[in-house]
């Protein structure tokens, strides 16, 4: 019983990590902005393709993450520290609002591109959904929990997370009307604080492990 509760807690934490890193609620204005020139049918298709592609990218990262680290001779502690620094950088940009402002400016600068090209894979699927932070976190998780049962469990979590993102993007117009830009900005900053704590925790855990190895 305790064992199953422990694994459920781990999987739930993995889901929360992905949710905080990707911040799909904060991405709703970006999604609406990028798909504003498309019909409802086209927007739904873009939503489905982008989240399905992001799930595939994250599952591949889960499966081959540890192999990549071994191939390049990178220790999990070093990768966790790098991932923690990356997460903190993203968190700071979320807290001060520069992340969303930068994405919106980029979208406005390339409006013609969004009129003509399919945006499902780039930039929605990658790097907005399956971005460096989410991929790094997935690789770190795979390196620490690499048995086949955990791989299946984490793959299911990734699929559930992608489904949640798909639902949120489907409901994007309603969220815009309900929360407004102020509400979404507040949620984005709360996610940023959670992310910063997570990044610091990654660094502390890795430094502690390195310290004990030295001793």
Query: Major sheet, described briefly?
Result: none
As a percent range, the share of strand residues is under 5%
Quaternary status: single chain
Radius of gyration: 18 Å
Low-confidence stretches: 110-116
- C-alpha termini separation: 36 Å
Report the helical percentage. Answer: over 70%
Secondary structure tally, helices = 10
| N-to-C order of helices and strands | HHHHHHHHHH
Description:
By secondary structure, the chain is mainly α. Helix content is about 90%, strand content about 0%. The model is unreliable at about 110-115 (pLDDT under 50).
What key phrases describe this protein's structure?
90% helix; 10 helices; 215 residues
What's the arrangement of secondary structure elements?
Elements: H1 2-22, H2 24-35, H3 40-72, H4 76-95, H5 98-109, H6 111-116, H7 120-129, H8 132-144, H9 148-170, H10 172-214
Helix pairs in contact: 1-8, 1-9, 2-5, 2-10, 3-7, 3-8, 3-9, 4-8, 4-10
């Amino acid at each position: 019983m305790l064992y199953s509760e422990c694994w459920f807690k781990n999987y739930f934490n993995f889901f929360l990590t992905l949710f905080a890193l990707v911040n799909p609620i904060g991405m709703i204005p970006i999604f609406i902005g990028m798909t504003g020139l498309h019909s409802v049918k086209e927007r739904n298709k873009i939503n489905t393709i982008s989240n399905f592609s992001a799930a595939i990218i994250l599952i591949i990262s889960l499966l081959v993450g540890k192999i990549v680290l071994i191939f390049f001779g990178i220790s999990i502690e070093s990768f966790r520290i790098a991932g923690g620094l990356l997460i903190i950088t993203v968190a700071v940009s979320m807290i001060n609002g520069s992340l969303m402002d930068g994405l919106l400016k980029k979208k406005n600068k390339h409006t013609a591109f969004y009129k003509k090209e399919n945006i499902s894979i780039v930039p929605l699927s990658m790097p907005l959904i399956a971005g460096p932070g989410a991929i790094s976190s997935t690789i770190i998780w795979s390196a620490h929990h690499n048995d086949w049962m955990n791989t299946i469990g984490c793959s299911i979590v990734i699929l559930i997370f992608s489904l949640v993102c798909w639902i949120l993007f489907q409901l994007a117009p309603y969220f815009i009307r309900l929360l407004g830009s102020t509400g979404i900005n507040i949620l984005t900053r709360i996610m940023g604080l959670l992310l910063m704590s997570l990044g610091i925790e990654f660094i502390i855990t890795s430094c502690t492990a390195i310290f004990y190895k030295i001793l």
